[in-house]
Amino acid sequence: MKAIVRIVSVGLFAIVIVGCNPGSGDKEKVYDIKGKVVSLEAEKNRVRLDHEDIPGFMKAMEMDFTVQDTKVLAGLKAGDAVHGKLKVKDSNYVITELQKH
Ligand SMILES: [Cu+2]
Region 3-26: what's the mean pLDDT? Predict the structure, then answer.
């Protein structure tokens, strides 16, 4: 029984290490993003942007994004023209910065 507990806890430990290490075999990319806030849900860390072309990545469109934390949306409201950073890893898109301009 003790051995099983140990195996499980070592396994979890390994998962935590991999999950917290952005440097390991990542294909993470950061793009500049520009557009307009369509709507936002700060409590859910979500924002809908009408964004311009992101060269080499995505055409202009309206879409929902997750933001890294609530602070990213501080002081923003629907209709604001914004620019910021979009971090992409695999199919995970996260807005890490967003500012009015
Ligand atoms: Cu898009």
Answer: 60
Tokens of 44: 């859910």
Residue 67: its pLDDT value, please?
97
- What is the per-residue pLDDT for 3? 72
Render pLDDT for 44-88 as a digit per residue (tens, 0 to 9).
999 999 999 999 999 999 999 999 999 999 999 999 999 999 999
* Nearest Cα residue to 87 out of 70, 67, 63: 67
Ligand 1 center–CA 97 separation, angstroms: 16
DSSP state of 58: B
Give 3-state DSSP helix, strand, coil % of the chain, rounded to 5.
25, 45, 30
Lookup: tokens for 88: 């992409």
CB atoms < 10 A from the CB of 35, how many? 24
**Dist. CA 19 → ligand 1 center (Å):** 26
Tell me how far the alpha carbon of residue 70 lies from the centroid of ligand 1, in angstroms: 21
3-state class (DSSP) for residue 33: strand
